[in-house]
Amino acid sequence: MDRRAFLQGSLGAALAATAADAAFAQTATPPASLQPPAFPPIDARSVWLVGDSAPPDPVAMSARLAELVRANPDVRDRYQEKGAVEALEHAFAKLLGKEDCAFFPSGTLANNVAVRLLCGDQRRALVQEESHLYRDESDAAQRLSGINLLPLAPGRASPTLDEVRAAIDASENGPYPMKIGAVSLETPVRRADGEMVPLAVVRDIAKLARAHGARLHLDGARLLLAPPAFDLAAYVAEFDTVYVSLYKYLDAPFGAVLAGSKQDVAEARDLRHVYGGALYQGWMPAVLALDALPKFGPDIAQAHQRTRQLVSALVASGKVRERSSPQASNVFWLEMKQALAEAAFERGRQAGIRVGRWKDGRIPLYANTTLLRRPVEEYVALFLG
What we know:
The chain is α/β, with parallel strands linked by helices. It has helices at residues 3-27, 58-71, 83-96, 107-119, 132-135, 140-145, 161-172, 199-211, 232-236, 262-274, 283-316, 338-351, 376-384; strands spanning 47-48, 100-104, 124-128, 148-152, 182-186, 215-219, 241-245, 256-260, 321-322, 331-335, 353-354, 362-366. It folds into two domains: 47-56 and 294-384, Aspartate Aminotransferase, domain 1 (Alpha-Beta Complex), CATH 3.90.1150; 58-292, Type I PLP-dependent aspartate aminotransferase-like (Major domain) (Aspartate Aminotransferase, domain 2).
């Protein structure tokens, strides 16, 4: 027998067996005693006190889409022209107070197209360090458009006017001067507990930026989740372009819109094609979002109202303190003892109500439209027992 061949064969078999065991250990279902307790099946009464909406139900979404198409068969588009896509674009242009609007398959694409067209030949842009554009888009602006993103406000939602002024000054008056082409602001800022950049700060930044020839983009993916007192028209008016998500809370499976002037949106459509975002058919998400949009405004306003009722009742009990930001959008924070939070989580699990997990003395509470599925009193009892 060839000893070397025997050893190689034995070693190979042993390694293969070890790899197989490791793979099995990673994929095998753990014993029931080690699995987290299950929630009831998601249905029309399921409530999510954490998150911007309930997770999508493919069966319900498909049924709703079929129902809408049967009621209005003329929905088809061709490369985002005509049909439901065009109707959705008109609806959002009107809502956001812009001349035109374009459908995009993703917010990442909408953000990158917007910043590229606003920068033009001045390939530097100011962004928040905690923004999606800077943290969650794989350096797409740098890699695909050669735009240098200069981050501001680490760990915070809002850059100060002094930070913006200093960044512009350093860029324009350094040894090799470079103009800032665009300023991109995300609001609400997901990575900063959903805080919003105040309108007064936006106005100051916009005035300064435009004085230096820079244009402004708003990443408003979650903009429509803002409290009822939020002045949408005044806010959006400070920006040249604004992106809003279709799937986070408007019942679409994917998609985004980008609004702005007719000239900017025409250029955005051209760049959408260049980036590979010209889908042959976009009517599916457009139909669903178009159906959800008219009722979403009143529903989210009512959800905010009920959230305030819930928070007030919990604070009045003496067992809970509110620790929300003054600039909160739809994310609020409740300070409580760990035992109280864990008991609420368990009661919620049994009732089909998702409660945020306790960490660092507090839990998050999200205002979203699933709160409308049950009375406020039920949520108060869930927390207080």
